[in-house]
Design a protein that fits this description.
Blueprint (H helix, E strand, L loop, with lengths): L3 H9 L21 H11 L13 E4 L11 H19 L4 E4 L1 E2 L3 H14 L9 H25 L10 E2 L3 H16 L3 E11 L4 E3 L4 E14 L4 E4 L10 E4 L13 E3 L6 E6 L11 E4 L5 H9 L26 H14 L3 E14 L7 E10 L2 H12 L4 E2 L2 H12 L4 E2 L1 E2 L9 E4 L5 E3 L16 E3 L3 E2 L1 H5 L2 H7 L5 H5 L2 E4 L6 H16 L4 E4 L5 E2 L16 H8 L1 H9 L8 E2 L2 H21 L10 H19 L3 H25 L5 H15 L4 H10 L15
Parallel strand pairs: 1-2, 3-4, 9-11, 15-23, 22-23, 24-25
Antiparallel strand pairs: 5-6, 5-14, 7-8, 7-13, 9-12, 10-11, 14-16, 17-21, 18-19, 18-20
Helix pairs in contact: 1-17, 3-16, 6-12, 9-10, 9-14, 10-14, 15-16, 16-17, 17-19, 18-19, 18-20, 19-20, 20-21
């Protein structure tokens, strides 16, 4: 069903004081124009900033989409938001740069590639490191072209001449330099600590990458002689080195300092006291397993306890009685419970509702594991980032996210930046075979050990955490771009990713940006919400409610999708999207098109209506004010109402009756085209060209209110 104006325009064709432009189709068909229009924009050079000192620059560094995957609807919302701002500031005459890029995405990319190998009956262990890396590289390069084409399809007016990839050699050199500087300044160390390890992905993760999930499990009460302990992890009793109680817990005063025996193996361990023990959990007596629990590790460090590991990197049992060796931890748990029950050591089993850490990739439970990793001491870096936020050097458009950012910064633990994967930037550290010390460089292979001068060095197999390299994205891109870019465009104006990566990425960009440049990487943080389906449910393949942005663009036009993704909610809030929403905005595109068919051929009287001009100026003023405050939904909703009702239903009818003249009506229409262009660039540009303009609308000046 076509929008009302298409029918109305046909009736207007027979109006005595105007006619419809018969050279324009009766319905706007986006398929005929969008690809050609984008080529015109790109070939014109409009995407590259025109440098001038007369106005301050406006810069957005694009949050780089995953190079190995297609764009999802969340990316489309990001494009709609950022491109609207970029087009607006470009039309204001500011030197405007939107620098595009792609992310190698570390474990995410390798995880997806390993699934492809599995479908062929292969695994990563079938290939040496260099071969596997080359295979992933080739796969990513092919997919990256698809991702870039999709950004173009959505109308992203970014400067392709400055496109960056997180594995570009110049970017990698910047990352290496930052690592070396941090190491030399004492912020980086290699230490044995407990980390979050995924035995399925085969790598450790940092604190921020753990997804906490509430679930119900069994809580097992086990007899340790003079005390009873409660645990959800009975399979780790073989790694116990103590039982701890709270020093304020009067129940255990008489046994404190004595020993208990671990069931099944009868090893003596002491009863100690520590304030970290929650006396209200279970029996108040906690089995201490530093090798497999974060709290236990901290207690063990305080009391200088031994660390024993009984689960290896494959999630299989080690260092246990022979019966359990090689079992998966979950299987061993059931066997241990059976054996405890047989020995009369299992007292009871209760249900417990608690939080467990899961892998953000495969959603499986993580295994806390003690291993040697590279860490960044974050306390000083986080403090400086917090201070910059409090001083408003970095401003969060939505105030609630400022509080969240400050909370994360004040609670960060040392950052584990090493990953046990092939795909990514390999850590530039070499171990001396003679003295076993590490030599860190800026990426070049050292010829000898810095300490003992021995010349047999072996490079670390680990790669950097993706967030460590992408945390340097704003300054790394500009420092490796065209001459003068860093000096002219840094700090950037706006960082506009989704709110779910605030702790992963945004706070780390602030920390590393301040460290390497002594300046914040961006002045405004504009976090956008997630896209949900029409019922408010999170979009996912497993739920079958995925909305493919390219499919919707092909069906209804990129303009329709873009406006639907902005419409109805503040940027920081989640957006409920449906095909019906997108189709409604296609009808709006057609409304504009059919209005153009009438206006371009109207030959009514040339009267000048002062109220018309005053109203147009007010619309300009209000839209400009909304855009300056990042209120995109309010801006486009105002334009929709004013254009549909005031201009089409009111002004056009008044023009037919001789109240408004030809020049004024056409001028007002062109003003609306300019105001609508940031949101609906394709249809407005095509109409602009249909009206005979030689210069593209993308480079037209923003109207003055």
């Amino acid at each position: 069903m076509e929008p009302p104006l298409s029918r109305k325009a046909d009736s207007i064709a027979h109006a005595s004081k105007g006619q419809v432009n018969t050279q324009m189709d009766t319905v706007y068909n986006h398929r005929l124009y969008e690809e050609d229009i984008y080529k015109k924009w790109e070939n014109s050079g409009a995407f590259s900033p025109k440098l001038t000192n007369l106005k301050p620059p406006f810069t957005i560094i694009m949050p780089p989409p995953n190079a190995s995957d297609c764009l999802h609807v969340g990316h489309a919302r990001e494009v709609a938001t950022q491109d609207a701002l970029i087009r607006y500031h470009r039309m204001k005459g500011e030197p405007t740069l939107w620098l595009p890029g792609a992310d190698h995405a570390g474990i995410e990319t390798q995880f997806v590639f390993e699934k492809k190998l599995k479908e062929k009956g292969k695994s990563r262990f079938d290939f040496d490191r260099d071969t596997l890396y080359k295979m992933i590289w080739d796969d990513v390069q092919n997919n990256k072209k698809t991702m870039e084409a999709q950004l173009r399809r959505l109308g992203a007016s970014c400067d392709w001449t400055r496109f960056k990839f997180t594995l570009d050699p110049k970017i990698v050199r910047i990352v290496y330099k930052t690592f070396k500087n941090l190491y030399d300044d004492g912020f980086i160390y290699r230490g044995e600590r407990i980390v979050n390890y995924c035995p399925r992905c085969g790598t450790s993760y940092s604190q921020l990458e753990v997804e906490s999930v509430e679930r119900e499990d069994n809580l097992y009460y086990i007899n340790y002689g003079p005390v009873t302990i409660a645990t959800t992890r009975p399979e780790t009793i073989f790694a116990d080195v103590a039982v701890a109680v709270n020093p304020k817990d009067k129940r255990y005063e008489k046994v404190l300092g004595s020993n208990v025996k671990i069931p099944l193996i009868n090893r003596d361990i002491p009863i100690i006291s520590d304030n970290l023990v929650d006396k209200d959990f279970g029996t108040g007596a906690l089995k201490i397993t530093p090798g497999h629990d974060q709290t236990d590790f901290e207690i063990g460090t305080t009391h200088k306890l031994q660390i024993i590991s009984v689960i290896d990197e494959k999630g299989e049992m080690i260092n246990t009685p022979q019966k359990y060796i090689g079992m998966k931890a979950e299987v061993a748990r059931e066997e241990v419970i059976k054996d405890l029950a047989a020995e009369g050591k299992l007292i009871k089993i209760e249900k417990i509702h608690h939080v467990v850490g899961t892998c953000y990739r495969d959603r499986g439970v993580l295994e806390p594991t003690v291993s040697k990793q590279w860490f960044i001491k974050v306390e000083t870096l986080a403090k400086k980032a917090s201070e910059s936020i409090k001083r408003k050097e970095v401003r969060f458009v939505a105030k609630q996210y400022e509080k969240i950012a400050l909370h994360w910064l004040s609670n960060l633990r040392d950052w584990n930046i090493s990953r046990q994967i092939v795909w990514g930037i390999r850590i530039p550290a070499w171990r001396c075979e003679k003295c076993l010390e590490w030599t860190v460089s800026d990426g070049t292979e050292p010829s000898e050990c810095y300490g003992c001068k021995h010349n047999k060095l072996v490079q670390d197999e680990d790669t950097f955490d993706t967030w460590f390299s992408s945390g340097q994205w704003p300054f790394a891109t500009l420092k490796t771009s065209k001459p003068g870019d860093f000096e002219h465009f840094y700090p950037t104006s706006v960082m506009a990713p989704s709110y779910d990566i605030l702790p992963f990425w945004v706070i780390r960009m602030i920390m590393l940006g301040l460290y390497q440049t002594a300046k914040v990487p961006f002045t405004d943080v504009l976090l956008h919400g997630l896209v949900r389906d029409k019922n408010g449910i999170k979009i996912s393949k497993s739920k079958g409610n995925v909305i493919e942005p390219i499919e919707m663009s092909n069906k209804y036009g990129a303009d329709a999708l873009r406006v639907a993704l902005i419409w109805g909610v503040l940027i920081e809030n989640d957006n409920s999207l449906s095909e019906e929403n997108i189709n409604s905005q296609r009808k709006f595109s057609n409304k504009i098109w059919n209005a153009a068919r009438f206006v371009t051929q109207f030959t009514g009287e040339t009267k000048k209506n002062s109220e018309f001009d005053a109203h147009i100026k007010n619309v300009i003023h209000e839209v400009t004010k909304h855009l300056d405050k990042y209120r995109l939904s309010q801006a486009v909703e105002l334009l929709y109402a004013e254009f549909w009702h005031w201009y089409c239903d009111g002004a056009i009818e008044s023009a037919k009756n001789g109240v408004i003249g030809t020049t004024q009506l056409k001028s007002g229409f062109e003003t609306f085209l300019k105001l609508l262009h940031p949101f609906m660039p394709f249809v407005t540009e095509q109409i602009w060209l249909e009206m005979g303009h030689k210069e593209l609308l993308i480079t037209a000046a923003w109207p003055k209110g």
